[in-house]
């Protein structure tokens, strides 16, 4: 069994080796045969048997192939024998045909000789006829000349004259009628010259009247050709890089789709009605006159006359009407006349040879361009309406694109547009200044109330506000900013759109447009919005609550500046990370406004404190206090508590600064009340009453009306009053005088001059109220103590003044 399995395994191997021998090159047979001897011991014998069987098979196949093709060979020999007989018959027929052709050719030769003799006779007859009728063509051509002149075919008439003079008259110059004809030709030429010049003058007058129509058609065609690509570009700008909060993108995209559809419909309607300058103007008088003068050899005279007249017309066209700046139609008429003039010149340049040259048209255009720029620069300065400036810009762009399409250089016009762009931005800034003022005037400076999900989404769609805590609150709820914030944000975006409208079609890169938009937006923020905010903050009717809301509003507007930068990026497709990209200055703008509002809060808060302090009505000679704080002071403290509750929405440092400023101002006001020069006398009871009021101030400071103060920081605002009143309440003058000037002194904050002023007022009161003081020992001792302390305090004050 093992041997049988081994034999079965070698058979496929032998077949593979035989296939390799048959299919490979003879040089590779050696390794193949070697593998036969490297296998099992009996493999060689079995391989040889297999090889013999393969050879016998190939022999059988060769025999079959030979038997198959042998019958075909025999058939081919049989057919060849049959063809030999037909070939002999064909040879006989060809020989017979050749003989018959030779016989027929003899008759043709005889007939050909007869034809030659007839042709010679015919030529001789024709020569005789030409000599006899030599004068007839001259008469016919002269008759033709008269007919052409009568039909006003002057150029053809001149060509006929040339033919008569150069071809026909020399043939019959020996006859008298020929000389008479020659004498009439110069007069006829002059008449043709005058008539053609008259037609040219009529043509020049006609194109002067129709220049505006020609220009209007050319500008309309240029605008239609460009509108399709412009709308596509707008669509790309609106679709790429959309932001979640750029809510106007979908509206702009839909608007562009509508405009694009409208443009395509217009182009489809007007496709069969495209007019060219040839359709509007008949140039045949120019061609005819040019050809006539060229034929007469006076082409230079015609060229000089034409150029001179056209320069005069150019000066008339370039002179605008005085009211051109009042309406867009005035500018449009001005531009269409100029375009019509140069479209005609461009047509003349391309269809005539040498009447006008490129150098001539360029010189004429440069002269016209200087005049146009001067006119536009002068008249555009009168434009105060941004819409009018924008329409003027669009007209200039169409004007420039139209003439650029005819090969004229218009770079200076686009440079002028950059000057007009600055003026456009100024008019926009003035317009938006009024818009901002109206928004601020109509604002109620209260948080925006929201009663439903729909109202919430409306506000979010207008302003990029994100606050997870507010979203979690149930309705009704309030946004922290007032109604002016989303309105201001929307108007800033509208300003960017308005600024973008001018930047379109200026043949500038996206980077330059991005830089223009950012710079103009920065001007709006730093000059207009900042100025409006500062003016608003300084208005007298703006109270503390409104100032607090303004600070909150500026904070949210400052946070929204990054969304404005994204908005500009989406429009221009220029990344903010690109080098030299201008950043928006909203951070500094709103920070300055916020600082101004904070300063105004401090000022108004102090003014309010002064109003309360002015209501103070102390009885400075009272014998003893009422036992409770003054009413005005309690009202003031209640007012401060309510105000500081409003300050909870402010940044912590602002509220703390306002609270500290108010306490310091109150302390200073109370101190000034004690030291007022008009106050001559103060009793001990009044001091006790004043001390009760200061205690209420200290209690207010210790109650932490604004969170964030450390320890007794706020109470230190009243430390000067506290030490001064403690000194008078305890009457501890020995300690004060002994420790004066020491860092650890109990009354370190009490100034000798302040103590002396107050003590002198109490001294005068003591003298006045104690008439019988000399009869009581305690009063006498007290009076002596006061006098002694006064003397010592005066010494300290004198010493301080000497050291200073």
UniProtKB/TrEMBL annotation:
Q: Where is the Exocyst complex subunit EXOC6/Sec15 C-terminal domain?
A: 413-761
Role this protein plays: Component of the exocyst complex involved in the docking of exocytic vesicles with fusion sites on the plasma membrane.
Q: Which PANTHER family match?
A: EXOCYST COMPLEX COMPONENT 6, SEC15
Put simply, this protein is called: Exocyst complex component
- List the GO biological process terms: Golgi to plasma membrane transport; intracellular protein transport; vesicle tethering involved in exocytosis
Q: Where is the Exocyst complex component EXOC6/Sec15 N-terminal domain?
A: 50-219
Cellular component GO terms, alphabetical: exocyst; plasma membrane
The lineage's top-level taxon is Eukaryota
Protein keywords: Exocytosis, Transport
Identify its protein family: Belongs to the SEC15 family.
């Amino acid at each position: 069994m093992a041997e049988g399995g081994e034999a079965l395994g070698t058979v496929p191997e032998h077949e593979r080796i035989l296939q390799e021998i048959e299919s490979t090159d003879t040089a590779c047979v050696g390794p193949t045969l070697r593998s036969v001897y490297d296998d099992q011991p009996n493999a060689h014998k079995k391989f040889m048997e297999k090889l013999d069987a393969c050879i016998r098979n190939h022999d059988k196949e060769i025999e079959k192939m030979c038997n198959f093709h042998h019958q075909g060979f025999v058939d081919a020999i049989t057919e060849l024998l049959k063809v030999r007989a037909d070939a002999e018959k064909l040879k006989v027929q060809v020989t017979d045909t050749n003989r018959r052709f030779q016989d027929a050719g003899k008759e043709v030769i005889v007939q050909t000789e007869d034809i030659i003799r007839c042709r010679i006779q015919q030529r001789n007859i024709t020569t005789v006829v030409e000599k006899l009728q030599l004068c007839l063509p001259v008469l016919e051509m002269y008759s033709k000349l008269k007919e052409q002149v009568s039909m006003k075919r002057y150029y053809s008439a001149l060509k006929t004259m040339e033919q008569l003079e150069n071809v026909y008259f020399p043939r019959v110059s020996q006859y008298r009628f020929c000389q008479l004809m020659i004498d009439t030709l110069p007069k006829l030429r002059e008449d043709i010259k005058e008539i053609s010049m008259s037609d040219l003058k009529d043509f020049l007058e006609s194109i002067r009247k129709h220049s505006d129509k020609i220009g209007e058609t050319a500008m309309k065609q240029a605008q239609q050709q460009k509108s399709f690509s412009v709308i596509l570009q707008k669509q790309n700008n609106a679709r790429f890089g959309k932001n979640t909060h750029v809510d106007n993108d979908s509206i702009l995209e839909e608007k562009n789709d509508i405009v694009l559809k409208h443009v395509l419909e217009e182009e489809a309607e007007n496709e069969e009605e495209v007019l060219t300058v040839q359709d509007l103007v008949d140039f045949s008088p120019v061609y005819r006159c040019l050809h006539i003068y060229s034929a007469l050899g006076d082409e230079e005279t015609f060229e000089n006359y034409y150029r001179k007249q056209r320069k005069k017309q150019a000066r008339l066209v370039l002179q605008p009407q005085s009211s051109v700046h009042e309406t867009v139609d005035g500018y449009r008429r001005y531009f269409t006349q100029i375009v019509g003039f140069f479209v005609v010149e461009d047509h003349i340049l391309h269809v005539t040879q040498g009447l006008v040259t490129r150098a001539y048209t360029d010189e004429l255009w440069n002269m016209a361009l200087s005049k146009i720029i001067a006119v536009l620069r002068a008249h555009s300065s009168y434009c105060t309406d941004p819409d009018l400036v924008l329409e003027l810009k669009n007209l200039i762009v169409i004007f420039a694109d139209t003439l650029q399409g005819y090969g004229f250089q218009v770079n200076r016009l686009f440079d002028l547009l950059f000057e007009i762009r600055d003026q456009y931005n100024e008019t926009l800034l003035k317009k938006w200044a009024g818009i901002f003022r109206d928004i601020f005037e109509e604002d109620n400076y209260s948080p925006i109330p929201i009663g439903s999900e729909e109202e919430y989404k409306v506000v979010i769609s207008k302003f990029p506000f994100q606050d997870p805590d507010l979203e979690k609150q149930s309705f009704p709820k309030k946004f922290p900013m007032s109604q002016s914030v989303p309105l201001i944000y929307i108007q800033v975006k509208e300003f960017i759109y308005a600024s973008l409208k001018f930047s379109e079609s200026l043949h500038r890169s996206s980077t330059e447009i991005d830089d223009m938009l950012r710079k103009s937006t920065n001007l709006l923020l730093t000059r207009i919005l900042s100025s409006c905010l500062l003016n608003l903050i300084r208005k007298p009717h703006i109270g503390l609550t409104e100032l607090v809301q303004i600070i909150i509003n500026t904070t949210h507007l400052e946070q929204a500046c990054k969304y404005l930068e994204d908005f500009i990026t989406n429009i221009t497709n220029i990344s903010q990370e690109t080098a030299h990209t201008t950043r928006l200055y909203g951070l500094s703008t709103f920070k300055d406004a916020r600082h101004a509002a904070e300063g105004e809060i401090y000022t108004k808060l102090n003014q309010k404190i002064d109003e309360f302090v002015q209501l103070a009505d102390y009885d400075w000679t009272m014998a003893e206090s009422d036992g409770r704080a003054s009413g005005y002071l309690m009202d003031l403290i209640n007012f401060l508590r309510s105000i500081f509750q409003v300050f909870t929405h402010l940044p912590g440092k602002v509220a703390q600064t306002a609270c500290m400023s108010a306490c310091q101002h109150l302390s200073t006001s109370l101190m000034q009340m004690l030291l007022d020069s008009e106050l001559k006398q103060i009793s001990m009871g009044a001091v006790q009453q004043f001390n009760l009021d200061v205690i209420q101030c200290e209690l207010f400071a210790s109650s932490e009306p604004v969170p964030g103060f450390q320890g007794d920081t706020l109470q230190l605002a009243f430390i000067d009053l506290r030490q001064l009143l403690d000194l008078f309440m305890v009457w501890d003058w020995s300690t004060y005088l002994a420790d004066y000037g020491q860092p650890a002194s109990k009354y370190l904050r009490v100034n000798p001059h302040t103590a002396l002023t107050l003590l002198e007022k109490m001294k005068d009161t003591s003298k006045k109220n104690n008439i019988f003081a000399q009869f009581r020992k305690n009063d006498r001792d007290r009076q002596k103590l006061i006098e002694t302390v006064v003397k010592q305090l005066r010494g300290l004050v004198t010493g301080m003044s000497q050291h200073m």
